[in-house]
Automatic annotation (TrEMBL):
PROSITE patterns in alphabetical order: PHOSPHOFRUCTOKINASE
Source species of the chain: Kocuria varians
Assembly description: Homodimer or homotetramer.
GO biological process: canonical glycolysis; fructose 1,6-bisphosphate metabolic process; fructose 6-phosphate metabolic process
Cofactor(s) needed by this chain: Mg(2+)
Function as written in the Swiss-Prot or TrEMBL entry: Catalyzes the phosphorylation of D-fructose 6-phosphate to fructose 1,6-bisphosphate by ATP, the first committing step of glycolysis.
Domain of life of the native organism: Bacteria
Protein name: ATP-dependent 6-phosphofructokinase
Site (Important for substrate specificity): 105
Annotated gene: pfkA
Enzyme Commission no: 2.7.1.11
UniProt binding sites for substrate: 126-128, 163, 170-172, 222, 266, 272-275
Record HAMAP family: Phosphofructokinase_III
Subcellular location: Cytoplasm
Keyword annotations: ATP-binding, Cytoplasm, Glycolysis, Kinase, Magnesium, Metal-binding, Nucleotide-binding, Transferase
Length: 343
């Protein structure tokens, strides 16, 4: 069997470990051959491929990014897009299976191609951990660990200057990174897209901490929407639609805290640092296992399915199960974190 691997959407620590796991297992266990498509669906649509022999994956588990490159290209766009053209590309390069490694957008494209009869299997990927049908996505643990380390550092400088520190983390639609890194770092408020919180409540938490002589730490996910009409009226941190402007919500929260409490406050946007560099041990193991699992699925011709983590087991789920809405932080998980707020 000749298997084509592709990585698509935002990059994520662990992508290279998936590639390595798939190639090593496929060659050793079945004698398969591997190629990589360059830059996500673009490489599939244009037939831009590179051979992936055994030596090409040496040392890859600890390497961040993706050696294949990535893009947000839609496989149905453009004159060369769509299942018929892609089928011709696969035939021309003698490719029997495609392993699509990506998040919601990538897997939605993979599902449409599999529904059209193409031999596609999937591997879930996103630092946001917002995909249904899998307990964790690789990249999430790394992002949480980077954000936690950054917050520990913000706390020492914050304490020294008696300031309130705000950390804006990734999470456009869900707040898993904010929730986990905030809990790990002992944040005094965690603001996420799933739950609206009024700025008066935030300043109450901040004042409680400050009154005890401590330096408050506030964690904000980039998609948080304050339950505060002022945010929309002032246009601060919001797009015309009322949705927070990415990179703007941390600044809005910072300015409001300083204005409402009089406490000197500083904002730090962690941004793409959360996606760069080496994956954690947990993510390397999960990604390697998913690479192995994806090859097993291709071997069994389980087209239209994704390899997922349930507890500690790998399972095969239909793409449709993975695409059944985003996995949001539930109320009980947020309530657990809230126990730590203020104080
Ligand atoms: O989906 C992962 C993610 O990192 C989001 O948390 C973030 O909003 C987005 O990607 C950023 O995308 P880009 O790298 O295209 O700016």
């Amino acid at each position: 069997m000749r298997i084509g691997l592709m990585t698509s959407g935002g990059d994520c620590p662990g992508l290279n470990a998936v590639i390595r796991g798939a190639v090593l297992h496929g060659i050793k266990s079945f004698g398969h051959e591997f190629v990589g498509f360059r830059d996500g669906w673009r490489g599939v649509v244009e037939g831009d491929i590179m051979e992936l022999p055994r030596q090409s994956v040496r040392g890859l588990a600890r390497q961040g990014g993706t050696i294949l490159g990535t893009s947000r290209t839609n496989p149905f766009d453009g004159p060369n897009g769509g299942p018929e053209n892609i089928a011709k590309v696969l035939e021309k390069h003698h490719i029997d299976a495609v392993v699509a490694i990506g998040g919601e957008g990538t897997l939605a494209g993979a599902k449409r191609l599999a529904d059209a009869g193409l031999p596609v299997v999937g591997v879930p990927k996103t630092i946001d951990n917002d995909l249904q049908a899998t307990d964790y996505t690789f990249g999430f643990d790394t992002a949480v660990s980077i954000a936690t380390d950054a917050m520990d550092r913000l706390r020492t400088t914050g304490e020294s200057h008696h300031r309130c520190m705000v950390a804006e983390v990734m999470g456009r639609h869900v707040g898993w990174i904010a929730l986990h890194s905030g809990m790990a770092a002992g944040a005094h408020a965690i603001l996420i897209p799933e739950f609206r919180v009024h700025m008066d409540q935030v300043t109450e938490w901040v004042n409680e901490v400050h009154d005890r002589g401590r330096s408050p730490l506030v964690v904000v996910a980039e998609g948080f929407i304050p339950d505060d009409r002022k945010a929309a009226i002032a246009g601060k941190g919001t797009e015309a639609s009322g949705r927070p402007r990415l990179g703007g919500i941390g600044e809005f929260v910072t300015q409001e805290i300083e204005h409402l409490t009089g406490i000197e406050t500083r904002n730090t946007i962690l941004g793409h640092i959360q996606r760069g560099g080496a994956p954690t041990g947990f993510d390397r193991v999960l990604a390697t296992r998913l690479g192995i699992g994806a090859v097993n699925m291709a071997n069994d011709r389980q087209w239209g399915k994704m390899c997922a983590l349930r507890g500690t087991d790998l399972v095969r789920v239909d793409f449709s199960e993975a695409l059944d809405g985003l996995k949001a932080v539930p109320q009980d998980r947020y309530d657990e974190a809230k126990v730590l707020f203020g104080r």
